[in-house]
TrEMBL record:
Species the sequence originates in: Azotobacter chroococcum NCIMB 8003
CDD domains for this protein: RHH_NikR_HicB-like (cd22231)
InterPro entries linked to this entry: Arc_rbn_hlx_hlx (IPR013321), RHH_8 (IPR041088), Ribbon_hlx_hlx (IPR010985)
Native organism taxonomy: Bacteria, Pseudomonadati, Pseudomonadota, Gammaproteobacteria, Pseudomonadales
Source species, domain of life: Bacteria
GO term, biological process aspect, one: regulation of DNA-templated transcription
Name of the molecule in the record: Transcriptional regulator, CopG/Arc/MetJ family
PANTHER family registered for this protein in UniProt: BLL4998 PROTEIN
Pfam families according to UniProt: RHH_8
Amino acid sequence: MVMSIHEQWPKAGDTTEKITINLGVVDLGQIDLLVQEGFYSNRTDFIRTAIRNQLATHAEVIRETVARKTFVLGLQHYSRRDLEAVQAAGQRLQIQVLGLASIATDVPPELALATIDSIVVLGALHASAAVKAALANRIR
């Protein structure tokens, strides 16, 4: 069965999630010094660069794990039509995404329950509050 699921890398600025971290004052001071000296435009620039460097260092492990655990890497979107096609085919989904999984806002909770067995997302899940509530015990 062919579905219109889109796998892609989100463009810069398309999708971001806010995180909060606690840093020691010495680490924060060193970051501020590098910003002040012009190495980075601001604290966020430094932190994003540090994270990207660490992800690049571990890229092979990430690739191997994604392949082994059959994760979709990037963005995976499910429209109402996608889920209706799954339901019509008598199938159910096990969604596994490293990145962003999104379920269209017009998907009713009943359709999501009828078609989605489990959701594992390492990153972010975008869905209506009603769909998230209906699938709460299936989201890991």
